[in-house]
Amino acid sequence: MAILYDYFDGDVSEGTFILNAANDWGGQSFTTAAAYILSRIDIWCAKGVGDNVGNITVAIYSVDGDGHPDTLLKSGTIANADIPETTAYAWVSCTLSSICALSAATKYCIVVHGASCDASNVFYWRYDDDGPTGQSSFAGGDAEWSTDGGTNWSTDDTADGLFRCYGSAAVPTDKTFSKKLIAAGNFEIWYESSAGTMAELTDANGEIDTSQPLEMFEAYEKVFIVNGTNKKVADFGNTKITTADILPAGVIPLHGDILTATGGAASGAQMVVDYIDASDGACNVYGKRITTATFLDTDVVTGTNANGAVSFTLNADEDAPPHWYDWTVYAASTTYGAIPDQVNAGCLWRGRGCISADKYYPQQWYMTRQGDLWDFNYISNDAQSPVAGGGDPSVPGQVGDIVIVQIPYDRDHLIFGCANSIYCMFGDPAAGGSLDKLDIPGGILGTRAWCKDKDGNLYILVSTGLLRIPKGFGSSENLTELSYPDFIKDLAFNPSTHRIVMGYDRKRNGIKIQKVTLATGANTGWWWDLKAEALYPESYGSTEHGIFSMFHYEAIDPDYNTLLLGCNNGYLYYENDDATDDALADDSAQLIDSYITFGPIKLGEENREGKVNSLVGVLAGGGSSGTEADSDDVTFKIWTGLSADEMTEKLVANTAPKVSGTIKAPGRWRGNQFRRSIRGIFAGLRIGNNTAGEVWSLERLLLEIKKAGRMK
Amino acid sequence: MELTFPLKGKNVGAPASKQPQGTSRDLNNVRPFWDGKAVGGQRPGVSKKFTQQIGGGEAPIVAICSVTVVD
């Protein structure tokens, strides 16, 4: 049942809004006492005797700075038949077309108008002006009037329209944060401007070089980007205020200071300072605003810190995020050390910004102060101090190899994937940590040749195979050395022409591995299934789907909570269980060529041949109207040979089978038995489907084998 | 002889005449689990998750991450 919230009943015998033209719009503003969900508005009204005013629109608007109706939020209509005549005014209810969430202590405006109103069909909305002379008796709002259909409004602060707002209690919410996806491509940065929609961060256009190594990592509501000499910040959390002079007197604000707008416009706004980009003169100040009041042009902003008093004047209203700026030390001041000129690796570990792969110091590593990515100035005997390799006798030295990537394994281990080896920082280097080389032969095959699964196990592709380093930093395990000893050899990875990308698919519990040719997008890949503990080769028929990046997005909306694939054609893809093909940029379908082979299958005993007499195929599904997912048809081919290796060669060559055909689907069909006797010592089968729009799954095959004579 | 999907994936490490059961020497674009069951079948196709083309043109997406912000 709807509850009465804001209302004004007034004295019902007073004045009237007279709507006798379509452009006559009446309004009544009010200020909510509490937050609630508005569903219905009642107004005290009537129509002329015998008049037909058609549908009367009753709407709720936000208001502008002058209290006039601004933006339409929701509306509903009252039918002519429901409106009494002027001999009997009454409360008439208007149910909104959809509910409207109203915030507490916020002014809104009810607006009433009718397209069919004219001199002969008049609508009347009562108002009360019964307060002291020249005033209305309703606090929190006033009557509004427009004669041009809501374009221009005038306020009558001596009158108030009679209204009642009904609704229900505000829906509770547990969500206090939002997530945004960020992607880099074609020299641009794009971000999720609204849920499910990507837009360009235009300030970043041309300021990064996506043809060079580029890493991005999240830290404290910002994204830090390292891209050679381009070290940037995309700031989604801070408010920006600007001044022509950050230091007219006193001292500059420090990271963590609280600033308040106390003079000038004196907005009363406050912020906690995160970063400033200059130590004197014109300056941008970035911080978390902690008041609903916003910073205004000419605000005099003040604060105090250990160094003294802060005071400066703003030269513009505040700017809301996102912001784009250079990643420098705090206030661009050497007091906070220096960022290396060229770095290509970065991550967040133990609350520190960790950067490496410095072109001029390729074995060096640098870490910012904990919780403050603007401070690179080392201070001894400070466990949270910024720190760099060999910067102090008590700190670990440089890595003994060229660093390619940093991998935050867990809070106690930062792994350095290097050109020829793997190193690890054990513990915080500013608090007794150590740097050691791991007993893993070979170096990592690229900056993205790693991922972690849901249990915290780390998978890295090194020059000796696919390794798993178990959670808890146990001994590494080579997953491919027995089943595929030549895995790395066949991979034929060349870092100058290829990129390896790995990602963990939480939904399917497997590792996706891709090798893409940088120049063309040509690709080969593998799926390591963590349930089966087995490797499955994969490929995409189009170079559009060459994968250059992967990321598991833990979106708020579960529809977007998936492993995303950053592809060669500029689109973000995901694996879709309902898709039988791969979607191209123009949304046409690229077929999937998929198959499996069986064999070599021994048909007879030593020196004796056997015969494949028949094959029966049973594919997944029980019929087109059943509950089980149905397979489409598959083709089959059968070969025989005299040796196992000969059989293997025939399977791989996939030409000139002894017999071939089609197994109909779904399920088992009469006639799905193929009888033809073919003789040999070994047999091999291949089944698969490469038809667009089709998908297949195997229940089982039944192969009838009989003995034959001695091999001659 | 009953043949079922090679749930143990690719194996070219054993002699061809001793191919381990449940493995295959040559397979492509298949997964061991299909429709939630260990029956094996074609891998899922890839579909666009966002309609916008990053960078406004055909160029690879070189890096992806996310950021969490307080409401």
Could you list some keywords that capture this structure?
heterodimer, A: 712 residues, mainly beta, seven-stranded antiparallel beta sheet, six-stranded antiparallel beta sheet, 2 helices, 47% strand, flat, B: 71 residues, two-stranded antiparallel sheet, 31% strand
Structure description:
The complex is a heterodimer of chains A (712) and B (71). With 712 residues, chain A is mainly β. In chain A, 2% of the residues lie in helices and 47% in strands. Chain A has 2 helices and 54 strands. In chain A, strands 1, 2, 4, 7, 9, 12 and 13 form a 7-stranded antiparallel sheet that branches. In chain A, strands 6-5-8-3-10-11 form a 6-stranded antiparallel sheet, with no helix packed on it. In chain A, strands 20-23-22-21-24-25 form a 6-stranded antiparallel sheet, with no helix packed on it. The longest helix of chain A has 10 residues, at 644-653. Chain B starts with a strand and ends with a strand. Chain B is mainly beta. In chain B, 0% of the residues lie in helices and 31% in strands. Chain B contains no helices and 6 strands. Chain B is elongated, with a radius of gyration of 20 Å. A two-stranded antiparallel sheet of chain B has the order 3-4. At the A-B interface, β14, β16, β17, β42 and β43 of A face β1, β2, β3, β4 and β5 of B.
Largest interface: A-B, 124 and 63 residues
User: Nearest-angstrom radius of gyration of chain A?
Assistant: 36 Å
Radius of gyration of chain B: 20 Å
**What percentage of the residues of chain A does DSSP assign to strands (E)?**
over 45%
Number of helices of chain B: 0
- Residues in helix, % of chain B: under 10%
Report strand % of chain B: 25-35%
First-residue to last-residue Cα separation of chain B: 62 Å
Q: Could you spell the SSE succession of chain B in H and E letters?
A: EEEEEE
State the shape of chain B.
elongated
Q: Within the largest sheet of chain B, what's the order of strands?
A: 3-4
Biggest sheet of chain B, open or closed, and with what strands and sense? Answer: 2 strands, antiparallel
Mean pLDDT of chain A: 93
